[in-house]
Amino acid sequence: MEGKRNFYVGAALYKQFGSDTSLLKLLSGKPTPHLQSMLEGALAALLEQPKIVLQDKQVTKPEAEEMPQSNDAVLEAMRKEWQPLYQRMNYLRHQLDKQEGNGPEATETRKDLAFEILSLEQECMRVWERRDYYQKHGSLPEVQQREVPVPTDPLELGRMVETLKRNIRRNKAQAQKHPDNPTYPALARQYQEQLEKITDQLKSNEGIKKQ
User: Fold this and answer.
1) 102 lies in some domain
2) Its domain of life (predicted)?
3) 111 and 158 co-located in one domain
4) What is the pLDDT of residues 166-182, one digit of tens each?
């Protein structure tokens, strides 16, 4: 908590998670050694409380700050989504370190920087959470795997095959246009798997007929 940057980041964190109304009111004023000491104690008390759980899932902190590159199209899109957020957050941290003076304008600037840093950090963590979910389940939360019944009518089956091919092409094209959106490669993969399932079933049926 030493230094101006850590005070304002700490104040932003307490405003997000703290509940002491008297301290919250003081944090809107000018920082003092006594106020910094109070803030340190309040943050330490928060750390001793049970860990915060979001939607029945423990928020995990990545072991490494840098998100690794991947040959998996979905994971790589997540990295491209995360990277500018992370770079912006580090840039703002550097800007916060450079702030001088204790006037109202400087204080307000530090507050704005601290809150944006906190917001970006939360966005980065959400990307890591989706990444963890994808690695565990093999799909994104918003792209759930679902069983699609294969039509027995040849005409309907042909239409389904063409629809799947069209969906694959469309989502691959969107993935090229929006390389930082993991939803498109995830959908393209889902449609590809459905098409392969139908193809395998047709081959199996042909084999049975020839016997």
Assistant:
1) yes
2) Bacteria
3) no
4) 999 999 999 999 999 99
